[in-house]
Amino acid sequence: MEFDKFVIGFEALELGEYNYNFLVDNAFFNELEYAEIQGGEVIVGAVLKKSERLSQIELNFEGKVAVPCDRCGEDVTLPVSFSESLIVKVGTEDNEDDGLLILGENDIEFDIRHYLYESISLSLPTRRIHSEDEDDEGCDEAILSMLNQDNKNDNDKDDIDPRWAALKNLK
Question: Is residue 168 exposed (0-12), middle (13-18) or buried (19+ Cβ within 10 Å)?
Fold first, then answer.
């Protein structure tokens, strides 16, 4: 499969439907200095429908990405599979609406890179941990044992503020 560059030239396109395929891979994520995603491979299929007044881009994301586990810090691979739509309009309005992109009247192309990264990031779960499946390696046992040991030490301490110790007797 041949992949397209991340820049779509709107001015040269006639009215109609155009297909694009983008590969979001390790090289893509390494270019972003602020990326929370460590790596992965996501294939994005895009269908651009250009009409007289506006254009619509239907995006289909399929693949996997690696992000740090919230529990142990090691990389966890998460699936990415979703679709969304983006409306592209030419004008001078200033609109912060999700799913609507307004290009300036002098803009002849659009770099979709940032939109793809944001869409993938927002599709990931808020709690990113290794699953308990047999197929998954799971969290790093050494780190988990250190965390559990710290929790035991915190629970073993009887250094309770005397003001709070009186509350234990209220049972």
Answer: exposed
